[in-house]
């Protein structure tokens, strides 16, 4: 397990107030709330960037489908809602 590290970030007053309010309501420290928020953000952003990179690799390798074929499969699966 990695050792905890300290980081410093400058945030605006409103965000600081909201952070304080949430940490008080949850009975948690501001550090805990920031850590949880940062983890959630990084999980989502990394998943997105990794998916984009996977798609780019597929494009470079020629693993693509024509738009009309994808649209037809979508319409077959989801019906007219895809139109």
What key phrases describe this protein's structure?
3 helices; 0% strand; 83 residues; elongated; mainly alpha
Task: Give a brief outline of the structure.
The chain has helices spanning about 15-25, 30-60, 65-80.
Question: Based on helices, strands and strand pairing, what is the structural class?
Answer: mainly alpha
Uncertain stretches: none
What is the overall silhouette?
A: elongated
What profile does the largest beta sheet have? none
Distance between the termini: 50 Å
Give the percentage of residues in beta strands. under 5%
Share of helix, binned: 55-70%
Quick check: average pLDDT?
94
Give the ordered list of helices and strands.
HHH
Report the C-alpha radius of gyration, rounded.
22 Å
How many helices? Answer: 3
Topology:
Elements: H1 13-26, H2 30-60, H3 67-78
Helix pairs in contact: 1-2
Characterization of the model:
The chain is mainly alpha-helical and 83 residues long. The protein is built from 3 helices and no strands. Helix 1 crosses helix 2 (30-60). The longest helix is centred in the middle third of the chain and has 31 residues, at 30-60. The N and C termini lie far apart (50 Å).
